[in-house]
Amino acid sequence: MYDYLKAMKADIIDYIKHDAELDRDDLIYNRDQLEEKLNDDLWINDSITGNASGSYTFNSYTAKEYVTENEDLCREALQEFCTDADTIAEKFLNGEWEWFDVTIRCYLLGQAISAALDEIAEEIEAEEEEENDIDFDVYVVHTMNENGNSATSEIIA
């Protein structure tokens, strides 16, 4: 079964890492503003929602497959956007599966953005912890003193 949220989260992470003009501080300290900005930008981004052109998949068969595997999610999205029965019936009878697919993606956008930012924040925290970990190497040095006895010293570097 097609997982809209998982696919959208991956698309959003890719967008943030490769296309968005953001810095680390935006991701950490300006979360609310960042979510709002991403929502505005991605609402009409074909690589995330398909809402600019009216299609994410650019393939009616694929869109139909995604939608029919997620009928409950489609129903939720249509109810959330207060889509009237006449519009739904018209789109269904005309086989406008890409319209349903885009509707679902727009419905999940905020949730997918939040999940993507959570994952990126976790990655940043892990990187910072790794950078802050101090590795010490201990070297044991064996030397001979003047009496011919062995002396051991540890050097921490």
Secondary structure: helix percent:
55-70%
- Oligomer designation: single chain
Structural class designation? mainly alpha
| Unreliable segments of 5+ consecutive residues | none
User: Could you say which overall geometry the principal axes of the C-alpha atoms support?
Assistant: elongated
Q: How widely separated are the two ends? A: 54 Å
Quick one: how many beta strands?
2
In brief, what are we looking at here?
With 157 residues, the protein is mainly alpha-helical.
Walkthrough of the structure:
The protein is mainly alpha-helical and 157 residues long. It has one domain. It is 62% helix and 9% strand. It has seven helices and two strands; from the N terminus they run αααααααββ. It has helices at residues 4-18, 24-29, 31-43, 60-68, 71-80, 85-93, 97-132; strands at 138-144, 150-156. It has a two-stranded antiparallel ribbon with strand order 1-2. The longest helix is centred in the C-terminal third of the chain and has 36 residues, at 97-132. The chain is elongated and about 100 Å long. The model has no long low-confidence stretch (mean pLDDT 88).
Helix and strand arrangement:
Layout: H1 4-18, H2 24-29, H3 31-43, H4 60-68, H5 71-80, H6 85-93, H7 97-132, E1 138-144, E2 150-156
Antiparallel strand pairs: 1-2
Helix pairs in contact: 1-7, 3-7, 4-7, 5-7
Provide key terms for this protein.
elongated, 62% helix, two-stranded antiparallel sheet, 2 strands, mainly alpha, 157 residues
